[in-house]
Amino acid sequence: MNLSVPSIKGLINIHKSDQPIRPVVNWRNASVYRLPKLFMEKVSHLAPLPNSFNIKNIQDLLKNLEDTPMLPHYNLASLDITNLYSNILVKETKAIFSNILAHNLTL
Question: Which DSSP symbol is given to 8?
Fold first, then answer.
């Protein structure tokens, strides 16, 4: 792998009235690109996290929607997340992971 500094470009949200720019960073050639995957490989057997609200891909989403009964009073919503994960409370997150690890290490 040829390591380099990540590149950044901006995509304009033309569908919004104030047309904000969404930064897109290409991390694939950065030295830290593989760290999250390596971390999850090492930690996932110690602290398995429930994936009840996650989807793998669009096919998984479509299958889940097909299996969901749609009643007349149901509404589908799509959320546009701004500044993703900027409000995660580090202290509380550490406590959650510590509890999960402690529980799984005693099993």
Answer: E
Q: How far apart are CA 101 and CA 93, in angstroms?
A: 12
Instruction: For residue 59, tell me if it sits in a domain.
Output: yes
- 3-class secondary structure, 12: strand
Per-residue pLDDT of the chain (107 residues; tens, 9 = 90+): 567 788 888 888 887 788 888 888 888 878 777 777 788 788 777 777 666 667 778 888 888 888 888 888 887 776 666 666 666 777 888 888 888 888 876 55
Residue 86 within a domain: no
Distance CA 99, CA 107 (A): 13
Say if 91 falls within a structural domain: no
88 falls within a domain: no
Domain residues for 59? Answer: 1-76
Task: Enter the DSSP assignment of 57.
Answer: S
Tokens standing for residue 65? 């929607």
φ, ψ dihedrals at 99, nearest 5°: -65, -45
Instruction: Indicate the number of domains in the chain.
Output: 1
Instruction: Name the pTM for this structure.
Output: 0.33
